[in-house]
Amino acid sequence: MYISHVSLTDFRSYAQADVELGPGTNVLVGSNGVGKTNIVEAIGYLANLSSHRVTNDAPLLRFGTERALVRARIQRAKQVTTLEVEITAGKTNRARINRANPVRAREILGIVRTVLFAPEDLALVKGDPSNRRRFLDELLVALRPGEAATRGDYERVLKQRNALLKSARLGGKASTAHEATLDVWDTHLAQTGARLLRGRLDMLELLSPYMAAAYASLADANKVASAFYRSTILDDFDEDFPSIGESTDADTTLIAPAALLNASQPELEELFIAALLKKRPKELERGITLVGPHRDDVLLRLGTAPAKGYASHGETWSLCLALRLAAYKVFGEDDPRPGAGPILILDDVFAELDATRRSRLAAIVAGAEQVIVTAAVAGDVPEELGGVFLKVSPGQVHA
Prior knowledge:
- This protein is α/β, with parallel strands linked by helices.
- It folds into two domains: 2-113 and 352-398, 3-Layer(aba) Sandwich (Rossmann fold), CATH 3.40.50.300; 138-306, Glutathione S-transferase Yfyf (Class Pi), Chain A, domain 2 (Up-down Bundle).
- Helix content is 40%, strand content 21%.
- The chain is built from nine helices and 15 strands.
- It has a six-stranded antiparallel sheet with strand order 2-1-4-5-6-7, covered by helices on one side.
- The longest helix is centred in the middle third of the chain and has 44 residues, at 176-219.
């Protein structure tokens, strides 16, 4: 698929902007701060209903305005779809499909698929666990839009359970009523949390071989890239890098403890509830839920060492790129029909890569139906990538 036109109204720095794009490579060139990333951020928002730069919608609105509009025309084989999202800070966002009546924004999830790599992705390796959880969750929802409800349900139940724990803590001692109500919320949390956990494990299983292959292509190193899911519902959860994540043979790397991988949905729920009961005294003491997907982590490794704290700057960039390229491959595997591949967005990537890695990345992405690149200097983009160059200046985009 590809986007042929994107229109922004009061989005970030743009009062109004209309950008014509085409299949193949599209390069947005302009000095830092002129608004290149704002354009690709808007495209990414259509796919995920979230920004890769901020955690809430308020900064997406042009200063002094009350709403922003992002519109795009998506070409998928011979089918053309027009999407529109109205972003209103502090209120429920609305969307339109082919200019029909407004619907809930999440109704458009899955219509346009993007894989966006940006400098902020370094947090996938260097940052806290929330970045890695978000990466898996966004991929899960993109592939299975119905799982957006699972995420929402889990967050709602978690909020209610935390409120109950806080109430019990402020009371000084958990009453019988508190304990009984906690039992009910434990069941709800285990049901929604187990579904979310299973989805994440599925995503990591799909990603892992592609991530290893992409890293090998980019880095040409003897270190194998791997990932291991660390869950708080298991008794052996600790802060150490787990030896269980090491390769079991030359070709297979365990992506999670067997107790999780081999468990059925009811068994995952039982593990979850058992962990909650074990942690309940500490949870009542602290007034917060200590067990569940909201506290899990994905440990990324190069060779036998964790990437965080050990990987060089170049290795970190290559590993983050490998994760995004793996997501691109997973999308392609999910829907191999012509014209169904995701849009690949590379935001200010090539400036950070040496000449060898630039050429290797260009070769990897050359087959994408649409690649959107941002660059401060046209010379940073490898010649073999080719494409159409668009000049971006404050508030304007032109050929």
